[in-house]
């Protein structure tokens, strides 16, 4: 037997999922994250999962890892000291940036502009110039380069980024600077904009390249350390890292281009959700991933998540392809508070995290959190994570009681209900960002809820959005790890063109796409994936001539068959997307292709699918006990069930609580959950399959 192992590191817990490739049987582990060294928690979880499966570590064929190392380095400001080389005259490219200030009226007065990741004193200029067509206007002055690099050496930089004007059109000067840097700055990692982001717009290209250099030393150390410790522990399988777009890359590639990993964790959840939504027969759905620190949401159509061209981490925005995930500071550890100025109850974005955690964890936390509110309302069992976390109900009540007193809400139960209502509205707002505000009606989608806390709030979010059914996959608390283990290898090749359609032909387009496809296939070829098993998809960033922004559009290669229909179909596709987003067209403007992309993907893993034994509608065999919960300002009796004993076709009627090792599902009155043969719970209103609240 051989196994695939998914490992996902979150802000609070590290999730491990071990999958038997032949039978599809899975074994899970959930351990507290070790922020000082994420590999400690990963290795501890891997050992636990292998122990529960009764297998040895040398039977693990592949380790698929979603990590937040790069993300945390940026959020915590703990990246490398970066030196930046620019074309002469562009030294202040990061300081000028873009003229956008967040906030409302007069926001520019109070907004503290974030410090660039490469300080101005660590930025140097070199003499060279290339035009937008790639033609050399001024040759690279190599003596000037050496003087600049020696200046950076005195600044004790730890990583070097090179971003020259128009380097996307001709990378020769950047490549030569890297060669010189190997002589002048031995041992220093170098990031080239022509490799990291070969696209136009000097600011976006520069900030993305600098971000890559900023996190590269830390990511390289972590990946190399994890590979070494896996080998020492007896794991013979290869290590792959999850990209922000939901695909996998070899560990060595991840070390060279870590900026592609910034949304690694959330992307795994969306991939895992697609795996189970497909089995349940719902190709269009919203995802709702609620963890201990934050909630991530996304929209998926036809089992394909919407892909964005920008990634936001804190105040930083970089150009990196990623699943279009929106995050809100609302998780199980989000702290409730009542500001003295307003006296109104607020929840988050501050979080108790894993240490000290919610008051219920008994680890020194005293502030009231969303988890404490769920404990007070009776929604959570006495322990979490398979017994690793014991809940202190009295500590939760004492913490939430402080909110009841400060907000004058009477009882701890009323305060807890208020906390839950507010956090649900916060998460509803995030779901609207990816649906209503993108032109989609959430009532036309299912809602896949996961994460350690997601299933507790899923039924309420279904009522708010009108998205039915609400799907609770098996092992929802470790679904990101499931996504890591069930996705495929992926690589992308990009070319910037900036050509109006009247300057293009179908034959030229087809030729360029085929060249990009060959480039995108290289890492997959190196991993031994046969070309016959690789699938290449194409997309382009388009705009009307004269616009200052682009819209990504999928390109159908088969339309470019020499008949002249290819560009016409692409024009129609762009117009439809522009109309959906903005409700108007610019009929008199030329269409313009700015960037062309090819994405090569390997085959999805061949993993056996598990099917639950049928058991009729009565879930009595899974019944545990009755318990009291607080719903709609009253104490009501709810039935508790063991999810591991539920069978296909069982129907659990609310109010009910379904417990499992890594999560707890709350089913509200007036709703019922049907057990799908794939193991997912499908929650719907009892009266109607679709209902607006």
From TrEMBL:
* Gene Ontology terms for molecular function: 5-oxoprolinase (ATP-hydrolyzing) activity
User: SUPFAM superfamilies recorded for this chain?
Assistant: Actin-like ATPase domain
Pfam families in the record, alphabetically? Hydant_A_C, Hydant_A_N, Hydantoinase_A
Which parts of the sequence belong to the Acetophenone carboxylase-like C-terminal domain?
Answer: 507-674
- Gene Ontology biological-process annotations: glutathione metabolic process
InterPro entries given in the database record: ACX-like_C, ATPase_NBD, Hydant_A_N, Hydantoinase_A, Oxoprolinase-like
Query: Which residues are in the Hydantoinase/oxoprolinase N-terminal domain?
Result: 4-184
**All residue ranges annotated as the Hydantoinase A/oxoprolinase domain in the record:** 205-492
Gene Ontology cellular-component terms for this entry are:
cytosol
Q: What is this protein called?
A: N-methylhydantoinase A
């Amino acid at each position: 037997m051989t196994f695939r192992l998914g490992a996902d590191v979150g802000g609070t817990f590290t999730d491990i999922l071990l999958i038997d490739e032949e039978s599809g049987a899975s074994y899970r582990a959930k351990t507290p994250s070790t922020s000082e060294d994420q590999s400690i928690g990963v290795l501890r979880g891997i050992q636990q999962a292998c122990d529960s499966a009764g297998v040895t570590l040398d039977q693990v064929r592949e380790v698929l890892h979603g990590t937040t190392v790069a993300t945390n380095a940026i959020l915590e400001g703990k990246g490398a000291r970066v030196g930046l080389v620019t074309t002469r005259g562009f030294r202040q490219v990061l300081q000028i940036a873009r003229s956008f200030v967040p906030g409302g009226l007069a926001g520019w007065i109070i907004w503290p502009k974030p410090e660039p990741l490469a300080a101005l004193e660590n930025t140097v200029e070199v003499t060279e110039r290339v035009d937008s067509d790639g033609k050399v206007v001024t040759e690279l002055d190599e003596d000037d380069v050496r003087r600049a690099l020696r200046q950076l050496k005195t600044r004790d930089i730890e990583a070097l980024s090179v971003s020259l004007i128009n380097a996307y059109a001709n990378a020769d000067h950047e490549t030569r600077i890297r060669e010189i840097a190997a002589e002048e700055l031995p041992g220093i990692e170098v990031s080239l904009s022509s490799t990291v982001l070969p696209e136009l717009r000097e600011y976006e290209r520069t900030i993305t390249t600098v971000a890559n250099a900023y996190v590269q030393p830390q990511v390289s150390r972590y990946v190399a350390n994890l590979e070494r410790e896996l080998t020492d522990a007896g794991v013979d399988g290869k290590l792959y890292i999850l990209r922000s777009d939901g695909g996998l890359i070899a560990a060595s590639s991840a070390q060279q281009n870590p900026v592609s990993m910034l949304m690694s964790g959330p992307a795994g959840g969306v991939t895992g959700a697609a795996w189970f939504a497909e089995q349940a027969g719902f190709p269009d759905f919203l995802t709702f991933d609620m963890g201990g620190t934050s909630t991530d949401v996304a929209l998926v159509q036809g089992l394909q998540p919407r892909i964005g061209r920008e990634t936001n981490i804190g105040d930083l925005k970089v150009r990196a392809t990623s699943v279009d995930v929106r995050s809100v500071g609302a998780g199980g550890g989000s702290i409730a508070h009542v500001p003295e100025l307003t006296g109104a109850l607020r929840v988050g974005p501050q979080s108790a995290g894993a240490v000290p955690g919610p008051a219920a964890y008994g680890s020194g936390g005293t502030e009231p959190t969303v988890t404490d509110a769920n404990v007070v309302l009776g929604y959570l069992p006495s322990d979490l994570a398979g017994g690793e976390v014991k809940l202190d109900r009295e500590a939760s009540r004492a913490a939430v009681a402080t909110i009841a007193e400060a907000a004058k809400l009477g009882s701890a139960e009323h305060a807890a209900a208020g906390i839950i209502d507010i956090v649900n509205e916060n998460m509803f707002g995030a779901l609207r960002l990816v649906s209503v505000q993108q032109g989609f009606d959430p009532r036309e989608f299912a809602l896949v809820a996961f994460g350690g806390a997601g299933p507790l709030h899923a039924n309420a979010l279904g009522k708010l959005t009108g998205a039915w059914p609400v799907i609770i996959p098996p092992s929802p608390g470790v679904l990101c790890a499931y996504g890591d283990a069930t996705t495929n290898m992926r690589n992308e090749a990009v070319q910037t063109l900036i050509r109006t359609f009247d300057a293009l032909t179908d034959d030229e387009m087809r030729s360029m796409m085929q060249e990009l496809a060959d480039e995108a296939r290289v890492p997959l070829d190196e991993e031994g994936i046969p070309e016959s098993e690789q699938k290449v998809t194409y997309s382009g960033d388009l705009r009307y001539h004269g616009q200052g922004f682009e819209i990504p559009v999928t390109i159908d290669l088969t339309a470019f068959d020499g008949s002249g229909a290819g560009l016409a179909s692409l024009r129609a596709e762009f117009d439809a997307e522009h109309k959906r987003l903005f409700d108007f067209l610019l009929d008199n403007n030329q269409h313009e292709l700015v960037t062309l992309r090819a994405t090569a993907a390997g085959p999805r893993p061949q993993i056996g699918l598990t099917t639950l034994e049928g058991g009729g509608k009565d879930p009595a065999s899974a019944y545990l006990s009755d318990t009291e919960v607080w719903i709609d300002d009253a104490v009501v009796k709810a039935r508790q069930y063991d999810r591991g004993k539920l069978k296909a076709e069982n129907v659990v009627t609310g109010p009910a609580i379904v417990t499992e090792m890594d999560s707890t599902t709350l089913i509200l009155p007036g709703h019922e959950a049907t057990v799908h043969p794939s193991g997912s719970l499908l929650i719907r209103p009892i009266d109607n399959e679709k209902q607006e609240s």
